[in-house]
Amino acid sequence: MTANVAVETTPEVPLWNDPSQDIGTRVSALIDAMTLEEKTAQLYGVWVGASAEGGEVAPHQHDMEEAVDLDALLPAGLGQLTRPFGTAPVDPALGALSLLRTQTRITAANRFGIPALAHEECLAGFATWGATAYPVPLSWGATFDPDLIRRMAAAIGRDMRAVGVHQGLAPVLDVVRDARWGRVEETIGEDPYLVGSIGTAYVQGLGSAGVVATLKHFVGYSASRAGRNLAPVGMGPRERADVLLPPFEMAIVEGGADSVMHAYTDTDGIPSAGDEDLLTGLLRDTWGFEGTVVADYFGIAFLKILHGIAADWADAAATALRAGVDVELPTVKTFGTHLTEAVAAGRVPEALIDRALRRVLTQKARLGLLDAGWDPVPAALRGADLDDPATLRGSVDLDTEANRELARTIAEEAVVLLTNDGTLPLARPRRIALVGPNATVGTAVLGCYSFPQHVGVHHPGTPAGIDLPTLEDALRREFPDTELTVVQGTGVDDGDIFGIPEAVDTARQADVVVVALGDRAGLFGRGTSGEGCDAESLALPGAQQRLLDALLDTGTPVVTVLLAGRPYALGRAVDEAAAIVQSFFPGAEGTGAIAGVLSGRTNPSGRLPVSVPRSTGGQPATYLGARLAQTSDVSNIDPTAAFAFGHGLSYTSFDWDELTVGRAETDTAGEFSLAFTVRNTGERAGTEVVQLYLHDPVASVVQPVQRLIGYTRVRLAAGEARRVRVTVPADLASFTGRDGRRVVEPGELHLRLAASSAEARLTATVTLTGPARHVDHTRRFHARFEQETVRPAEPAA
């Protein structure tokens, strides 16, 4: 990361402002020159909202905050500005001007001229008014395409950096452990390798644009009891090490992540914000992380008011600092006066302040914020008349055609075709009945951290800022010659059944029914999916299952379309629907992507990042179960999924054969090699997603029956065949042994080349020899896939 403006240093430039000097030397000099109040001022943010007229930001008042007096704070400096764009609707150009003017005020007010670091949410795009809404992370997982997600993150990062934002609070690397949890939509899936590989790509993409990615939530948030938000976590150290930690480890070691956000939750009585073994011992001392640890919003105060392990605010601050938290967000509460008074009284050593400060200032130096002549004018405003805000309005486009095209590609790759009796693709039907609560709602494609759902709902008179075509709009465009009749039938979660008879009558008069079901994203109970919107069971919300069953009874083919934030049990539809199309909040281009799959314009290639349950109960359950987690004769609950992790259909067919094992035996430091052929035996181009699972028949501790260790997308024209070669490092067989260390043990392994976790196509039996070998965070994380065409596409008839 480089400074905004190249500068020439002079002898008068203070050492800490000289970019030609070593960053460590600069930071040390600056720390030595600062007072205690100036030091602590760099360790907290203030939650602000940009001015809609381009003036300076104003502090945002939240029900958990005390009023903030910026005039009183700024002479000492300010560490961060919290969500200047993501707090209220504001034109992007005027928001950038507001941030610019505020940064000018901040640098002028403190004697070292240090600007604040501005952060924003970016979970499914830059969460500000007028910015492209991309598919949610669960859709990223459904693509099984890290390169595509890396491109998306780079685009998001460029938009953020262009208006003056430095840090993004994403990606979420929590692994789904219970699909009832409301924040499933924010996760990438239920498998740690999928989460880690996709999440690392996002970190790399954001970083390529000069924006710091923040990994969250470290660690265990998604493993709360009963899937309840911010509930205690019951989890052993081995599950934590082998399921929840690897995505963070990968994103730090391979992705170079420079920020981590602690989780709200406690594990076995230790809150993450106060866990020194986690935030210092593991994260820094073992993994070598050198960035900043930021608090999840109000998380340090929660040590006192929720966890009860701190006696007062100073105690909470000291506990978090000692554990390894460097920055209090969203606003100053414990790291301000309470902390400085505690240091003065000898309750908190100043060395803890200096340790956190060094990390914060190092990050600012890397971003160019300490350089002499740092220019607060962001790229989007360079050359503009900054004295005439009226001319700026509408001049910054955060929803470009390039962004929309990228969002469209992700949405298309993320649509998962679960079942199809041949009804799809639809062959120019004369009459379509479009039914369901998500048929005519533009925001049905958005997750809870999209700006319209997160902030826009509080400003009902303000337009969404981006085009959000409904499924009705998309189908009318896709099928212009078809008679389309639209009936709601029921709401998302209102339980209303009075519209079902009309829906049934409409269905009986149609050639095919498209029923649009699923979720409404929201926060804290305002939706059926999202933060604080946890589910008691995985039944469809409200009366949606009753509507679906009534439509199935009509005898008209029913195509079930899900626009949802989590997987749901679909009852009879699993076996009786003509087709089921699953999408996970696919973003602003999502309805067009779904329509393209229905018409056949797009050949679906998405694969499930989470299992779809057969029954509404029996949770929690994921495919990563040990033998005792499978169906058995000693329990009447069958956890077998209706559709397994990794499942997805295509409009073409593929054959896998000619498996050869180039190296079937190696020592515990070696690698295996396999090769096989994938053929497109259908009549149109398509993409097969090859998944590699490892089964360890005998291990020193209980292992899941299988786990994903690699994958690749194989794009094939009709009649084309490719030879796929796979190199599998022995490191991928490692797990946490009885002594708490990660080990590769000798013995027999089964490498399953599969179309899903329930559909192995080819299996190679291989053997590890020699002594058990311990590995650490420097181990190899990936199998290597290579593809070679062995039969070209067949010429068109």
Automatic annotation (TrEMBL):
Entry's Gene Ontology molecular function annotations: hydrolase activity
InterPro entries according to UniProt: Cellulose_deg_GH3, Fn3-like, GH, Glyco_hydro_3_C, Glyco_hydro_3_C_sf, Glyco_hydro_3_N, Glyco_hydro_3_N_sf, Ig-like_fold
Key word Calcium present: no
Boundaries of every Fibronectin type III-like domain copy: 688-757
Keywords recorded for this protein, A-Z: Hydrolase
PANTHER family: BETA-GLUCOSIDASE
Family: Belongs to the glycosyl hydrolase 3 family.
Protein name as it appears in the record: Glycoside hydrolase family 3 C-terminal domain-containing protein
